[in-house]
Each structure stands twice: as structure tokens, then as C-alpha cells.
């Protein structure tokens, strides 16, 4: 089908030379080794031998059998989008090309290759599009063995990264009743995100960290931009406890910010500045609340110890008083009835 299209195009070129000249198109000097192309506003300088190397529409256009339209500066005009024309030139030069990873850009490149009747490039694009349509059922999560290895991996990898630290060996105190469930919820969310976005984001699991028990870290362009620590120490009347939380909304929010770093260029500065200020405000407010809770817990513990003695404690007296008031209110309601 492609060969017949080329043959038809050649017949059109041969019989259309006079009409093109009559319509105001100027002749091009094909004796020059290099040609200047204006493809949809994108300018390209390339050797004529590159354009005529393979049997396609470009060979027919630059074989000297037709007049091509030029602008006032002598650039040959081609009425196509120039976004992928550089990729097409690279393929014509040596027969190999680095295809884009995006399925949308692959489809765009396929359309351009089809227009220029480059069958070899069309086949490469078709194979890549088929792989996108039927992705491998593989989810890759990297386990790291050292912090140095983690930093080298993140800086060398082009994708943004999400790391979760999960290490229960760091715990010095007993857990609160909901901590075990929240640990599992954090781990399950990490697994769900890795299954869904492993092709776009690098997922790292740290099981040897020595500083935290459960912590999320988000990286973009090789640098850390956000961190969520899910553990804290709470004070009870008898001893300290380790509390593990599941800040689901904040994890989703920072994960969406991570997707902004897929673009090799920097994300929108105003958006990232607003995100950083919001994150700093949340960290300050969380730290302030933790300090207030710690002070309040210590004060309550001191009051309970001061009130303990041979008689009933203050908390027991308050409980008895509450029961007394409740019984009085119940008896009064019965008398009214």
C-alpha cells in the first residue's frame, strides 16, 4: 500500500510541476548539498542526501522533479507540524531513533511518519504503541540497603520518587491500640500507589532505616521536597507509648505534587512555592500541637500523683460525683411523672 502511494505521488509530482510554478512557487537550487526547511514554523538545516536516502515522500519532493514553495529568506516551506520532524531527520540519518515514552507522542510521530511514507519508522511506532496498549503486568519496588545507595539511585533516575520507611525495630515503647492498624494502612497505600503508578514514579522501600518507624519521603529532580513522619510519642499516666498515624489526605496531596516533577523542566514556581509554604505551616502546627499535648499530659500526670493518698483519688471522687448527679436527675424525672 505504501509503495503504491509513493508511485501515485510521483505521478502527481511529474504532472503537477507546471501548475505549481504557475501558482507562484519558486524553484529551488537542488545542486546545493544542504537545504533549509521551514516545517510548520520550525527551522531545520540538513543535508540533501539525508532526505533522499530512503524511498519516501521526501525523496520525491527533493529529487528535483518538482518546484517547492519558499519564503522570502529561501526556506523551503512544508505545511506540517515540526514537533517531531527532528526525530524523523535523525531516523533518516542512521536508521535508529529514540522513540518518545508517551503514547500520545508516539501516535503523533506515527502520523508524521505515515504522511511522509516512511514505512520503517511507522513499523517502529506501531510496535511501541502495541506495547503501550498491552503493558507488562510488572510492578517494580526497589529495596535499598543504605542511605548512600538511595541518594545515588534517586539522583541518577529521571523519574520522581516516593520512598517509604517501615521499620518496627526502632520502637522503644509499646504501641497505642490503633498503631498496628495504621502501620498496615500506610503499607497498603504504598502498595496500591506502586501498582498504579510504577511506570511513572520510582517507588523505594526502606526497611533498614534507623531514625523512624514509618515515614514517607517524596523526591523530584533528584532532591527531596516533602516528608511525612507518621509516628510520635504520647504520654500516659504510667509510661510512654508510640503512636502511628495514617495521614491519608496529606499523603495523596504530596503524591500529586510528585507527579508535577515528571516534566524534565521545573514545575510552576508559584504552585511549588505555595505548596512549600503550606507544608511548612502544617509542620509547624503539628509540632505545636504535639508540644501542647506533651505539656498537658505531664500536668495531668503530676495532678494525679499529688491527689493520690489514703483516701479516694480526685478522679474517683469526680466519678462518684458524676454518678450521684445522674441518679438525682433520674429520681427527679420519676417524681415529676
TrEMBL record:
Name assigned to this protein:
BTB/POZ domain-containing adapter for CUL3-mediated RhoA degradation protein 3
Gene3D superfamilies named in the record: Potassium Channel Kv1.1, Chain A
InterPro entries the record matches: BACURD1-3, BTB/POZ_dom, SKP1/BTB/POZ_sf, T1-type_BTB
BTB domain: residues covered: 33-101
**Per the UniProt entry, what are the Gene Ontology biological process annotations, in alphabetical order?**
protein homooligomerization
**Which residues fall in a compositionally biased region of kind Low complexity?**
306-337
* Superkingdom as given in the UniProt entry: Eukaryota
- Region: Disordered, residue numbers: 266-337
Query: Where are the compositionally biased (Polar residues) regions?
Result: 273-288
Amino acid at each position: 500500500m505504501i509503495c503504491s502511494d509513493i508511485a501515485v505521488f510521483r505521478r502527481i509530482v511529474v504532472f503537477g510541476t507546471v501548475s505549481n510554478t504557475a501558482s507562484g512557487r519558486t524553484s529551488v537550487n537542488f545542486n546545493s548539498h544542504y537545504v533549509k526547511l521551514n516545517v510548520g514554523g520550525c527551522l531545520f538545516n540538513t543535508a540533501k542526501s539525508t532526505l533522499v536516502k530512503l524511498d519516501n515522500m521526501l525523496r520525491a519532493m527533493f529529487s528535483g522533479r518538482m518546484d517547492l514553495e519558499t519564503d522570502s529568506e529561501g526556506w523551503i516551506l512544508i505545511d506540517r507540524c515540526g514537533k517531531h520532524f527532528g526525530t524523523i531527520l535523525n531516523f533518516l540519518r542512521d536508521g535508529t531513533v529514540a522513540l518518545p515514552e508517551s503514547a500520545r507522542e508516539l501516535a503523533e510521530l506515527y502520523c508524521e511518519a505515515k504522511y511522509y511514507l516512511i514505512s520503517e519508522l511507522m513499523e517502529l511506532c506501531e510496535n511501541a504503541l502495541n506495547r503501550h496498549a498491552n503493558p507488562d503486568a510488572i510492578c517494580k519496588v526497589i529495596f535499598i540497603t543504605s542511605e548512600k545507595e538511595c541518594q545515588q539511585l534517586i539522583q541518577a533516575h529521571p523519574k520522581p520518587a516516593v520512598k517509604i520507611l517501615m521499620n518496627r525495630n526502632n520502637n522503644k515503647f509499646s504501641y497505642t491500640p490503633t498503631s498496628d492498624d495504621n502501620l498496615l494502612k500506610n503499607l497498603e497505600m504504598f502498595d496500591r500507589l506502586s501498582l498504579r503508578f510504577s511506570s511513572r514514579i520510582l517507588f523505594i522501600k526502606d526497611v533498614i532505616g534507623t531514625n523512624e518507624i514509618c515515614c514517607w519521603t517524596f523526591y523530584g529532580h533528584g532532591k527531596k521536597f516533602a516528608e511525612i513522619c507518621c509516628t510520635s510519642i504520647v504520654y500516659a499516666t504510667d509510661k510512654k507509648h508510640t503512636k502511628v498515624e495514617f495521614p491519608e489526605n496529606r499523603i495523596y496531596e504530596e503524591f500529586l505534587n510528585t507527579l508535577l516533577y515528571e516534566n524534565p523542566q521545573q514545575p510552576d514556581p508559584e504552585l511549588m512555592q505555595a505548596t512549600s509554604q503550606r507544608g511548612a505551616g502544617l509542620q509547624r502546627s503539628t509540632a505545636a500541637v504535639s508540644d501542647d499535648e506533651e505539656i498537658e499530659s505531664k500536668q495531668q500526670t503530676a495532678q494525679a500523683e499529688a491527689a493520690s493518698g489514703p483516701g479516694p483519688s480526685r478522679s474517683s471522687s469526680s466519678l462518684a460525683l458524676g454518678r450521684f448527679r445522674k441518679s438525682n436527675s433520674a429520681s427527679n424525672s420519676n417524681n415529676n411523672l
